[in-house]
Amino acid sequence: MNSNPSQSDRSTTANVGVVGLGKMGLLHTGIISSIPGVSVTAVSEKETFLIAAARALLPKRIAVYKDYQKMVSEEQLDAVFITTPIGTHVEVVNDLLKLNKDLSLFVEKPLGASYEQAKNACEVAARSRGVYMVGFQKRYSPVFQKAKQLIEQNLQGTPIFYRAYCYSSDVLREGHAWRFHKSTGGVLLDLAPHLLDLLIWFFGEPTTTLAVKKRVYSSEVDDYVHAIMSYESGLQGHIDACWSISNFRLPEFSIQIHGKNGILTVTDDYVKFSPGRGSGNMGGQTYYKQSFNTSPSFLLADADYTMEDISFLNSIGTQTNPDPDFAQAAKVNALIDRILESAQG
Q1: CA 237 to chain centre
Q2: Which residues are within 8 A (CB) of 112 and not within 5 positions of it... i.e. 6 or more apart?
């Protein structure tokens, strides 16, 4: 896969549909519409007020449907972006691939609400002929890509342990919004999957997990999760995921890796190596996000979203596995299930 795809990499045209017109559906619709050679042909949304808004605001050439199966049956689509609530992802995948096994699918993270669901999606995709990707866009951030490169180069030396967190201020009071509902899965299915995907990308899957969880403002879901993870290599690490911390206007992610040569820290804004006393003549290194020349020619949100969409669309033209594909994304669901199981004990 081209880790830094650009619009010039586009090798084919594509007609795209979008299922779900919430925040992420609108974001992807806007990004796709700005990519040369790609056209948003149709969108589907079940909520009446969003259907009315779509018909009023979207270009008239875009067909608006209430039934996504009807959309796929009536439109000549090459790909569909699925941005519905997490618990419905796999149901939509199954319905669409029953109608058209050549269809390529992009699913917003995580792939399913459980590993069982994610596994089912993988099995259905394996019997189909498109390409299938899940939206873990932080893999397309230049700072996290640089961090992976430095880890593979063993800059920090043999890893001893890591500490990582993802924090946001999304839930700071009791309420009845969608985040409080049991079907959302709480912080572990909403915010934490990005962090867990990065850790799997960096280190592989852990062999053991031990976790605790806490409800702060929610009565049906967890607002905070702490998990300790151990690996076959001897590496150990812990994560904290919480969406109930004040003063985080935007979600914040951080991974700090302690190795025999020093400390490698990566956040959304930079990757930094701080050499230790025993690292000889090694010097410190810092790479800021602004220093990477990877931005696309247009920005509707963080560039990572655009880069992942372009990569997915490129994969359709080349018929190569996108990154991450369903099988890779299912590992995140497997780890979430293990964390939840260990927290029950």
Answers
A1: 21
A2: 86, 89, 90, 118, 120, 121, 330, 333
Joined together, the tokens standing for residue 323 give 């990154």
With beta carbons less than 8 A apart as the criterion, state whether 19 and 84 touch: yes
pLDDT confidence of residue 14:
92
CA–CA distance from 158 to each of 50, 230, 261, 308 (Å)? 52, 15, 8, 31
Sequential DSSP letters for 201-257: HHH---SEEEEEEE-SS-SSS-SEEEEEEE-TTS-EEEEEEES--TT-SS-EEEEEE
**Residue ranges, CATH 3.30.360.10, the chain:** 139-292
Strand 79-82 to strand 14-19: parallel, antiparallel, or no bridges (unpaired)? parallel
pLDDT tens figures, 33-68 = 999 889 999 999 999 999 999 999 899 999 999 999
Q: Which CATH number fits domain 139-292: 3.40.50.300, 3.40.50.720, 3.40.50.1970, 3.30.360.10?
A: 3.30.360.10
CATH architecture of the domain 7-135+299-324 equals: 3-Layer(aba) Sandwich (3.40)
Residue with tokens 């812990």: 238
Distance CA 25, CA 34 (A): 14
Over residues 322-329, mean pLDDT: 97
| Furthest CA-CA distance within the chain | 66
Per-residue pLDDT tens over the stretch 225-236? 999 999 999 999
How long, in residues, is the chain?
345
The number of C-alpha atoms within 13 Å of 164 and in the hemisphere containing its C-beta is: 27
**192 to 225, 238, 254, 343: CA distances (angstroms):** 9, 13, 12, 15
